[in-house]
Every structure is written in C-alpha cells, then in structure tokens.
Amino acid sequence: MYRLQKSGFDAYLVGGCVRDLLLGREPKDFDVATNADPEQIRKIFRNCRLIGRRFRLAHVHFGREFIEVATFRGAGEEQNDKQMLNKEGRLLRDNVYGTIEEDVWRRDFTVNALYYNIRDFSVVDYTGGMEDHKTGTLRLIGDPETRFREDPVRMLRAVRFAVKLGFKLHRDCERSIPELAELLSNIPSARLYDETLKLFLSGYALQTFEMLRHYGLFKVLFPATESSLAIEENGFPKLLLIKALENSDNRIAEGKTVTAYFLLAAFLWEPVRMQAKENMAQGMVEYVAYQEAAGEVITRQIKSTALPRHISMAMREVWSLQPRFTARLGSKPSRLLTHPRFRAAYDFLLLRADTGGADPELADWWTRYQEAGETEQRKMTQPSRKTQHNKSGRKRNYRKNTDSNTAGHET
Ligand code: ATP
Ligand code: MG
C-alpha cells in the first residue's frame, strides 16, 4: 500500500480483512483497493500477476502469499466490452474503472464495503457498513434482486458470511434468495466448485449446509444429494452427511486438515449407493455396480459444480473400496490395507457404521485388524465359521438398507 502511495496512487485495505479486524478476528487474507489500473499495478510490482477476465485484478506475490489488489470499479454509462450484462441481468464483465466513491456501490454487502485508509488510519464508510457491522446485519448494497441477478454467487456469499460472522441476513436480502436461487445454475461450474469449497471447508460446514437448504440453494449445487435426502428408507434419516460435516468442523476446530474429496464423497454417497442398488437389481455384481454408479453420479454432478480430476478419482476410490471391506478372508484384507486410499476408505466405513449404513462389527474388525500383529492378522483372516460369524454369540442383523449385506461371502 505504501509502495502504491509512493507512486502517486491511493490504496486502501478493503473487504473481509477490515470487516474481520473490526470483529477482533484474524483476517484470512488481505484485499487492497486502489485507483491504479491493473497495468499500472503491474509496472509497480515485479512480483505481480494479473488474473481474471470477468473481473480483472492483480495478485501481488510475497513468498508463498499474495495480496489481491483490485482497481476501483466505476459504473459504465452504457454496456460495452468492458462491462456487460446478459439477458438475466448477470454481469459478464465488470472492468470499467472509477473512483472510490463509485467503487463502493459495486461491492456486495455493506460490511464488505469498509475501506481502511492508511493516510489517516480512518475507516471510510459510504454505505452504513459500520452501523450494520455493529448490529450484526448482512445487507446487500442497493436493490437485492438486481444485485443477486448481477452475480448470483452473492447468494452463496450471503450464506457463507452470515454463518461465519454470526450475522443476520437482512430481511430484503433474505426474501429474494429462494426465488432467485435457480439462477446459480447458469454460473460456470468451476466457479461454483471454488465457492463450494469455501462454503464447506471453513469450519462451519453443518450450519452452512442447513442454511443453504433453508434458502433452496443447496439443491442447485447438489441436486442428486437433495433428492436423496427426501427419500426415507426403513425410517432411517440420512445421517451420514450430517456426521461428515460435523466431523469436518470438529477437525478444523482442532487445527487438523480436512480433505475436499472426503467430504464430497460423503455428499454424493447416498446417490451412489442408491444407483448401485438399482444396478445390482438389474443383475450387476456389487463391485461393478458401484463403479458404474460412481461414474454416473459424477457425470451428473459436474453439470452443477466442477470436480477436478484428482478429486473425482479420489472420491471414486473411496466409494469403490466400500464393498471390498466385507471380504475378510484370505489375502484380500492385507491387500486392501496397502491400497493408497485405504485410510480414507476406512474412515468412510467408520462414518457409515456410525450412522447405520454398515455393520459396526465390521468396522470394529477393521480397526482391530490394523492394530494387530502379523500372526494375529493371519488368524483373523483364516476361514473358520465360528469365529467369523458368531463371535458375539448371536446372529448378526445386517440391515437391509446397507450394501454390507453381502457379508454372506465369508461363510
Ligand atoms: P473472505 O474472508 O472470504 O476473504 P472477503 O469479503 O474478503 O471474504 P473476497 O472474496 O476476498 O471476500 O472479496 C473481497 C471483497 O471484494 C469483498 O469484501 C467485496 O467487497 C468484494 N467482492 C468480492 N466478490 C464480490 C462479488 N461477487 N460481488 C461484489 N463484490 C464482491
Ligand atoms: Mg478476502
């Protein structure tokens, strides 16, 4: 910011960092707004890359970090190749530059439109953002419907910020969402994938999920998951996803990492399981039925949110390893143990066992099997009717709605 100033430009901290600092929180990153245009920024910083077509801005790199530097946006007089709306009112491009007074109105929420001025250490507020910040209100700047139409992703951002900050969505803003939710389906799937990760990997996944469903946004992101949630099977509520979201939030709270593919595998597990069941009913063997189902579900999902190849591959592995856990005899278990995706698949099995989708005894067996020494492992995988099936002295009740009712393989 001082470098920009020295070169004769204005520079302000803006957006999430000002908002979060005012709450006494550590900002996730820093965004800078300036009257220097992207080319001018590039000339001032050697370590600078210009990104984005729809919304061109500069990333100024410092080691592994970068700071996003955006040029003030202005309101274009008429549409041209720099600023463009489509017929639904969506901004296809917003690269008309302007002054800070104009820039304010292009921002999404009032609390995101506070500018910290390094010249006199003041906060510049044109939209009543400070007042909304005090009362914990998330309010769109301008007419909510127009602003949501301009960029439907703002609906997802509304939910993300409301949950993260513990703010209330302003009534007018809230009201427009259900009827405009469908507009999200026109957003490039890659952008929706990025936004999905922000929504679910920030430590408030469960609350976010509930709020997205409440406003009818979730079904646009994960249509197959939404439909599967509506189907009750043997009175079992669909708990796996809830549990996965909870676990993920707890891990983040403990400072541990969470992987996107694991959570996404949980999102789409019900659709995969249901499709696999259908495939089996048509005579496919279990293993193939799951492979096919995985492929079909992913093909449908990427119409909504993109899934990078390495992510969808990992998801498929987690899913297709599930039926393999039921084979406990001979060399199969030791081979499964060496599979590179074993750990994630095993965690997924625990999740299923925890929520009525797999036999807890099976999950237990795998826990013990991993901890056992070599001799013990060999004993555990020897065919012996007694120890295999009637260990606890009673017949296991394999639930009908699981895919682990193939345990009969072992006997
Ligand atoms: P986070 O804590 O997630 O970084 P943020 O508010 O900083 O939150 P960014 O995506 O980093 O969000 O964007 C920085 C700022 O740019 C926002 O605070 C907002 O003022 C503006 N902005 C970002 N995306 C949009 C959008 N889709 N429409 C309008 N303004 C936006
Ligand atoms: Mg930011």
Strand content: 5-15%
Low-pLDDT parts are: 390-411
Numbering strands along the chain, what is their spatial order in the largest sheet? 3-4-5-2-1-8-9
Provide the CATH architecture of the largest domain. Orthogonal Bundle
Write the layout of secondary structure elements.
Elements: H1 2-6, E1 11-14, H2 16-22, E2 31-34, H3 38-44, E3 48-51, E4 57-62, E5 65-71, E6 83-85, E7 91-94, H4 100-103, E8 114-117, E9 122-125, H5 129-135, E10 137-138, H6 144-150, H7 153-165, E11 168-169, H8 171-180, H9 189-200, H10 205-214, H11 218-221, H12 223-230, H13 239-253, H14 260-267, H15 269-281, H16 286-301, H17 309-321, H18 332-337, H19 342-354, H20 360-371, H21 374-380, H22 385-389
Parallel strand pairs: 2-5, 10-11
Antiparallel strand pairs: 1-2, 1-8, 3-4, 4-5, 6-7, 8-9
Labels describing this entry:
411 residues, alpha+beta, Beta Polymerase, domain 2, cca-adding enzyme, domain 2, seven-stranded mixed beta sheet, 49% helix, disordered C terminus, binds adenosine-5'-triphosphate, binds magnesium ion
